Predict the structure.
Amino acid sequence: MKILIAEDNAFSRTLLKKTLAKAGYDVVAAENGDVAWEILQQDEPPKLALIDWMMPGLSGIELCRKIRAIDSPIPIYMILLTAKTDKEDVLEGFAAGADDFIKKPFDSGELLARIQVGQRLVEQQALLYCLIDSIPDPIYMKDSRGLYLGCNKAYAQFVGTEADKIYGRTASEVLPNDQAKQSHMEDLRVLASGSAAESEGWTKAADGRDVYHETVKIPYLESAAGSNGMIGLSRDLTRRMEMEQEMRRLAVAVEQSTESIMITDTEGVIQYVNSAFETSSGYTHEEAVGRRPDFLKSGKQSQEFFEELWTTISAGNTWSGEFVNKAKDGSLFIEETVIYPIRGDGDRMINYVAIGRDITQEKEIEKHLRQQQKMNAIGVLAGGVSHDFNNILTAILGYVALCMNAVDEDTKVYGYLKEIVKAGDRATKLVRQILTFSRQEEQEFQSLELQPILEDSLSMCLTTMKKNIQVEQEIDPSCGPILGDPTQLQQVMINLCTNASHALSKEQGGTLRVELKQIEVGRSDDEDTVVDLEPGSYACMKVSDTGCGMPPDVVEHIFEPYFTTKKKGEGTGFGLSIVHGIVRKHRGLISVESEEGIGTTFTAYFPILQEHTHTREAEETLGAVDGDGRILFVDDDAAILSMGREMLESFGYSVVTATNGRMALETFKKNPDAFDMLVTDYSMPEMNGHEFIRQALQVRADVPAVLCSGYMEKVEGEDLRELGNTLYMAKPIDWNELSRTIGRFIEERAP
């Protein structure tokens, strides 16, 4: 330890130096107070000083005062050497800052003992300072006036100053204004009350960082005279608060997540579930925690499935797949789930987390889309087959018609031929029904009658209906036409009839009834008054059954998407919602009445067209028209070509034939004015009917034409505007209608 000796007497200075050096101390001697003060300004000054009271220049008392004014965390321990023994002199020395004094002449043993006491105090202060300064938490000390006595490095860094420059300064000189006022008032309350105070909150450091401090302020007795001071200790909890906020944000995100989250221990016991789990499963947090997930099993997945799952996650790997789970109410739902392990210290697995997304509706939509794709595929297949099949029917019915013309009506052969015609008509309707039902594109509304749509739809349903179901129909032939899409209306009818047949039990069967009549809404004597319909004429269609019926809560939701009373896998729940949409699209209304054990009745209303010029009965009375004109008839089917020529000639027309469009065009170009009408098939090799008519119109712009096809949708896909007033006719050809059409065209163009 380095000791300073400030003594003007050379003998005493030498004696002190030898005594201390012999005791092992590092000694620095000064012959007066001024030299001693200069030594104390050097780097690493002595920590203990022996100061003579009476010295020339700077006296010992004055030197003590100057040393005590030094702002040092470890004050110099000062021992006054004096011959004075008066009490007043001793008190003056202590007041000047001396820690001890020795009366001259002194005993060397006493001197060394007092120096050892001072050394211990200096070392203790140094140790205390080192401990406080090494603490990462900000610490500061203040006197009873609220002035800083010192601080550690952490506090100096927090307030943006140097630790050795804080002594004697006020809070307003160290801290920002608002922060200084608050801190100073808290310090004064602690000093006044003499009791500790605790506080915590966000504050701002000198570098601009927001920090969260937990602060304790403790009063202490500064001196034997009763002067108080205080110590302030702040714990930086910023990282902990940030983690807590992060955990709170994470907790909120987990709770508000739309995906189901489950946390289990390594044995599979549930420790946590979020709100989405409660929503999808129906089980509350309290009902799920503490149980294994087995209560969600639906029985749809095998034991091997779950064994493979546990093998995967037990090995520390992530598992992903789909669960078919059973909710609390017994309903099944499908979850797309990922399960992954959570590892703790030493890479040890401590938990499993399962994140699941309810894809039940997605599966239903996917199933519906697959059904739609299947129906599209059926439509494409039916369209491809229909062309050839309609060609065959055209030939069959055409030749039968020729045979009937050659046979007397009262013979058995004529009756047989008539039955063939009936069978052919049924085959024609069947093909058209399949094509109509499978069409997916949007159709333009047209004037149509519901009678044939109901009859055809019911005919289609009868082929798949149980034999013990009795079908009744009451269709009013005088019900007027409506504006609509035949494809969509047929879809409505087939759906309602199919649902009605499903409602009838397989064992007992029952009755399915279809009705159609025209009603007047808004008349006082009308029994079928419907509040939601505007006054006027409506086609009222009813489909009823004597089946199981439905309770009121089911009827309330019957037209909602995805809602179905059928078992899993028997229906998508889209049918009646589509029916409702189609009816509303036709400016109509559909309602349902049902009673459990009695049956169900669906009633649909469609507004009647106010103006229509002809009826179906009038059309059916029209017969064939005898013809007079020259026809260019084109078809790649030899049987149809031969039969068609003979049929048209039987009506009185002169016919020239061609087996494809290119040959027909060459024939037409040779003498364009020689033909009154072009009748051509659409689908032919080398040049189709559409292209043939287009090029023929370039040769002669006013030539009329009829384009025929066994698959009209292909024809409708062409740009038909460039063909002018060309008419279209579906195969199998109605030869009487074709004859009337040709006759009208020729008559209209006659001079």
In short: DSSP finds 23 helices and 27 strands in the chain. Confidence is low (pLDDT under 50) at residues 568-574, 612-623.
